[in-house]
Amino acid sequence: GWMIAAFFAAGAVSSAAFGRLGERLGAHRALQLGSAGSAVAQVMIAFTPARLPLLTAALFAAGLANTLAQPAAHVVVSQRIPLERQGIAMAVKQSAIPAATIVAGLAVPVIGLTVGWRWAFAGGAVLAALASLAARSVTDLPTRPIRPAASDTPGSLTVLIILALGAWLAAGHATMIAGFLVDSGEHAGQSASVAGLMLSIGSISGITSRLVLGAYVDRTSVRPLTLVVLVLGAGAIAALLLAPQQPVLHALATPVMFATGWAWPGLFNLAVVRSRADRPGAATGVTQTGTYLGAVSAPLAFGALVEATDSYAVGWIFAATWALSAAVVMAVANRWMRRAAGRT
After folding, report:
1. Which residues contact 304 (CB under 8 A, 6 or more apart)?
2. Distance (Å, whole) CA 283 – CA 106
3. What is the pLDDT of residues 257-297, one digit of tens each?
4. CA distance 176 to 180
């Protein structure tokens, strides 16, 4: 728990600064450094003694690397992808996260339980090093002139702070799902194997929803943040379906939970880069701070609440409240941005 918290805490303390740094370095250099940093962190894990301080330091370093790469990827989408394809591009970028989770899960039986867990991280370091080399090709892509989308105008710092608050709540809801769904399923009466399978199915559902909604935004005039409000509201309802702790209902609700609770990041980041197309890296650096804070604080609060009440029903009602609160904050930000667009 401390090691995972260290990863997200690194993002919380550095995201705003690294967003600005990435813009000064250039997207390709930031992507190269972020990927190289990930490789270094995984080498540390693979070849150093398995002691808590060392592993925590390695996860903190990995968090810094991720924090530098994330806004840089947003800059690439904003500046080098045609406006009519940015929705699906951002969805693909955000789908890398749950896809990596699936790969990591497969690495346990394939590598961790055969040749040893250290080799899983050594292999990850090789992949990260290759990604760092591949990032050099970003410089060969034609750069599109930076300009806001027709329906958006540069937002103020106040709007970014509201969006960061919304990201805090939304990310908290998403990490509760990923972190506790398997244990909740077992408490509801599912076998460990079924609960693990449902987690994989849920991850696929989350990826699918991101891609479908990203493509939908590209083909319609709907504002991305409007969809964020809707899916978070649906996520609150889905969380309530887990509260009765019935195994069949739990299984049916799981893909719905992921499809709604994990659908928002691509849409959210697209809304941010469109509202601040002049400085997409710096803007998403600010809003990502909220994402990292949510990833640290919400699981701790959820776990403490479930332990204190000895009830996952109470925990999922709590998660539903978080999702609904996120929807409300996102709706406020959406209305603020619409007013700003109407004044220009």
Report:
1. none
2. 35
3. 999 988 999 899 999 888 876 788 888 888 989 999 998 88
4. 6
- Distance in angstroms (rounded) separating the CA atoms of residues 6 and 54: 12
326 neighbors 203 (Cβ within 8 angstroms): no
**Contact status, residue 280 vs residue 272, Cβ threshold 8 Å:** yes
pLDDT confidence of residue 148:
43
Q: What letters, b where the CB count within 10 A reaches 16 and e where it falls short, cover 157-170?
A: eebbebbbbbbbbb
Cα(314)–Cα(320) distance, integer angstroms: 10
Q: CB of 278 within 8 A of CB of 155?
A: no
Query: What is the number of helices (H) and of strands (E) in the chain?
Result: 12, 0
| Helix (H) / strand (E) containing 21 | helix 2-25
CA–CA distance, 328 with 333 (Å, rounded to integer): 9
The residue written with tokens 């339980």 in the block is 113
CB 270 within 8 A of CB 220: no
Give the whole-angstrom CA distance, residue 182 versus residue 194: 9
